[in-house]
Design a protein that fits this description.
This protein is mainly α. Helices cover 28% and strands 7% of the residues. The chain is built from 4 helices and 2 strands, in the order αββααα. Strands 1-2 form a two-stranded antiparallel sheet. The longest helix has 16 residues, at 32-47.
């Protein structure tokens, strides 16, 4: 019988979408903010100390309302935008969020509000989750910077 060992569980939630029966239940001992900060710290640990040897690509296509790690999908919340590349993981994510939010929202998706260009699409899907926590924490711990210069090719 499989079980989750609470003494070594980091609370990342990666096990949730791996179970096709939905039998995994996690007793969250932390809030959303803490989980987001842990995700940033894990990303930092994955590339440190070789960040200078990494390139980051975001494919802004088929942007679904939930994490792409879920075993199901829904209609995209905005139209396809393109591909963004950077040597800074924080800048590329900030640019990606900005590009998504500039688009009109898809009323045929799970987007509940913020359909107009310039409105926060991610808060339109999950109003209680502040995605900016991750980028602020990433910048604070030295993973990268939120400032960027967008060059269209």
């Amino acid at each position: 019988k499989a079980k989750i060992d609470p003494d070594i569980c980091t609370g990342c939630g990666a096990c949730l979408p791996t179970c096709p029966e939905g039998a995994i239940r996690i007793v969250w001992d932390q809030g959303i903010r803490e989980m987001q900060e842990k995700m940033v710290e894990y990303a930092y640990g994955a590339i440190y100390p070789r960040r200078d040897r990494a390139v980051f690509l975001n494919f802004l296509m088929n942007i679904t309302p939930l994490c792409d790690c879920y075993p199901f999908s829904d209609a995209p919340i905005v139209q396809d935008i393109g591909i963004v590349a950077s040597d800074d993981p924080v800048a590329i994510d900030q640019a990606s969020v900005d590009l998504v939010n500039r688009q009109p929202g898809n009323p045929e998706s799970a987007l509940e509000s913020n359909f107009s260009p310039g409105e926060d699409k991610f808060r339109g899907v999950a109003p209680d989750v502040d995605w900016g926590v991750q980028l602020s924490h990433a910048e604070r711990i030295g993973l990268g910077r939120r400032t960027y210069r967008l060059v269209t090719v």
